[in-house]
Amino acid sequence: MNTNQYRSHPSSIPRYTWLGLAILVAGETGIALHLPWVATWFTPIMWTGFILTADGVLARLRGRSWLTTRRAEFPFLALISVLIWLVFEVYNFRLQNWLYRGLPADSLVRDLGYFWSFATIAPAILISSELIHTLRQKYRSASELPSSALPLGPGWPWILIGFTMVAIPPLLPIPIARFTFGFVWIGFILLFDPINERLRAPSLRHDLTSRPSGTLLALMLGGLVCGLLWEAWNFQALGAGGGHWVYKVPEQLRIFGWHYGQMPILGMLGFPPFAVEIYVLYQTVRSVLDVDRLLGRWTL
Description:
Blueprint: H1 15-32, H2 36-40, H3 42-62, H4 66-69, H5 74-95, E1 98-101, H6 107-119, H7 121-139, H8 156-167, H9 174-177, H10 181-198, H11 204-209, H12 215-239, E2 244-247, E3 259-260, E4 263-264, H13 271-288, H14 291-295
Antiparallel strand pairs: 1-2, 3-4
């Protein structure tokens, strides 16, 4: 995530930014009126509007963004977003941490809705994180010193620990496996980020062991922001009787019964590492498939 270069004069706000805002307003209006179609697909509707709006703001501040200078890669990002989330859905068969309700009975319509929803996950997280990173670099104090490099040691222990963390949970009995979702959220980071480093792809290890640029912090903050929005919109969809998800978190992990929307408070801690995980996995797939060669050279 490189936000060090800016145009001397910020570009104008792209027109699709206003479309995004209109979608957000229309979504909130529809949910307030309990319109059935809006209630069913409220979450992907809102994320579509959010992605258009946030990317437009990013283009205005940075002079480039996914939908202006990387638009050919954006469909690839959306597709990989679906594939990455399907990996977690496979884990959920065993861990049984969430389920979906209020979705259409028609399987084709339901699957199209799943695809639409899952396709917004990675774009929302990465655009949010880039926007936070851009704002931080653009407006931080000129006297702020860069962070010191961190000695992280060789990557192979990370790979070994990460592989163990993602391999063991599905092998455990379900009553025990349900407690191990945190290992999955973190394990893929430890497993694939050292691989990205070896592939010379963007790597958090490389960033932290050279001169940290703030990418990790931006990703974690972006994940938290997205988590707050996800749960807020999910709660609205639930209230309107629309499509939503519920969590089957073990009672031992529910702190005093406190929730944010449907999510137990402790579960909110999972959104920051989830954002880091999305970034790491996307960089791995992007490097292995050599997306730059397939799509041409695009500004990162």
